[in-house]
Design a protein that fits this description.
Elements lengths: L2 H15 L14 E3 L16 E3 L2 E3 L3 E3 L7 H17 L2 E3 L4 H5 L5 H9 L4 E7 H5 L4 H11 L3 E6 L1 H6 L10 H11 L4 E5 L6 H9 L4 E3 L8 H8 L6 H9 L7 H9 L6 E4 L5 H10 L3 E4 L1 H7 L3 H21 L5 H4 L4 E3 L1 H9 L5 H4 L4
Parallel strand pairs: 4-5, 4-11, 5-6, 6-7, 7-8, 8-9, 9-10, 10-11
Antiparallel strand pairs: 1-12, 2-3
Helix pairs in contact: 1-10, 2-4, 2-15, 10-11, 12-17, 13-15, 14-15
């Protein structure tokens, strides 16, 4: 097994066996309060959770985030998720495809997604450090063609790379590389963080670089500093493990990042990072997200089979529908107008950053 394959297996094992959730910081959704409607004036069976994003119709504003690929275990996980999202009319991303670009024999571990999900929205995936080290439009096209993807995700993981013993920490010129691919590729390019969030300053730069969407992936869910902390347990360098410990909770909380980005750009925003319920999904949409993305809960389900994945996703959608009923929103567009209170640490963060949080409380459906 080569180094990259071993790393991928390590990531799966650690996420399943260890507590890699943020410790002392949350995604911030507890600070977001809906105004309950005692007279919703809608019928629950008529609620429409469907939405359009990236010229694709989703039955709910929900996708499964980038998880894995490149190993036998990863192929089974991808197959189970793909079959579930196809049946439910959702979408999914795959993990970094670098391993299959360098070893085409492993492409089937990613390609299984399109085989199992012929009509679902699929997102290919490459890492920003690989762009700096020489990947370009040719590799981007290979990644897209490998799974017949609807979009390409370029993931940003500077925090993880600084903790990872074999981390690649050269990000110089990465925005220019992203722009070149975004302007050349025929499918939309989405830029995604990996658990540390995106601020409005970077969001503005990404939109100017022709990126078609931004996945904020804020702190509050899986910490990749924590994942690399556990990978470093058996490493010779105690220095890397100490870094993982100290940067475990580094980043912008998801709720704050959604507002920072959605209030700055006109392109679709995907909310991820600590999304653990349909109520979180509803709050993310009301804050300005176009879609939401869940990863860790689906990884656990995917190891137990297709039916478990469907059960998990269906319950998230059920919770979303319940929330919409209780705020009187019969559609996702109405949910985006529902009044919410942005309180606590999230409200304080956003005020200090110059955002008008009171305006959310004055909205009317």
């Amino acid at each position: 097994m080569n180094e990259i394959a071993k790393r991928k297996n390590d990531h799966i094992r650690i996420c399943l066996e260890k507590n890699v959730k943020a410790r002392k910081v949350t995604a911030g959704f507890e600070d977001i309060k809906f105004v309950h409607k005692a007279l919703p004036e809608i019928e629950m069976k008529d609620i429409d959770t469907s939405t359009m994003a990236f010229n694709h119709k989703f039955t709910a504003p929900l996708v499964v985030g980038a998880l894995t690929g490149g190993t036998k275990e990863a192929e089974e996980i991808n197959a189970n998720i793909a079959e579930a999202v196809e049946e439910l009319g959702l979408g999914m991303g795959v993990g970094s495809q670098r391993i299959a670009i360098e070893n085409p024999q492993l492409s089937k571990t990613f390609a299984i997604t399109r085989e199992k999900a012929p009509t679902a929205f699929l997102m290919a995936n490459l890492g920003a450090p690989q762009l700096v080290e020489g990947y370009g439009i040719e590799e981007a096209r290979k990644a897209v063609e490998m799974i017949d993807a609807n979009a390409l995700v370029i993931h940003l993981n500077p925090l993880q790379e600084t903790i990872q013993p074999e981390g690649e920490t050269n990000y110089r010129g990465v925005l220019q590389k992203i722009e070149k691919i975004a302007r050349s590729l025929k499918v939309p390019v989405i830029v995604k963080e990996t658990g540390a969030g995106i601020a409005y300053e970077e969001a503005r730069k990404l939109e100017a670089a022709s990126v078609a969407g931004i996945d904020v992936s804020g702190v509050g869910g899986t910490s990749f500093a924590a994942v690399e902390y556990y990978r470093a347990e058996n490493a010779k360098s105690k220095f890397q493990r100490k870094l993982g410990e100290n940067f475990w909770d580094w980043g912008i909380p998801t709720a704050a990042s959604i507002v920072e980005v959605s209030k700055t750009v006109q392109i679709p925003v995907i909310a991820s990072g600590g999304i653990r319920s349909g109520i979180h999904i509803a709050k993310a949409i009301s804050l300005g997200a176009s879609l939401t993305s869940v990863s860790a809960p689906i990884l656990r389900s995917a190891t137990k089979g297709v039916e478990k994945v469907k059960e998990t996703l269906n319950f998230l959608i059920k919770e979303l529908r319940n929330t919409m009923f209780l705020v009187g929103a019969s559609s996702i567009e109405e949910l985006k107008k529902a009044p919410i209170l942005v309180m606590g640490k999230t409200g304080e963060w956003l005020r200090l950053r110059g955002f008008d949080v009171e305006a959310y409380a004055r909205r009317l459906i």
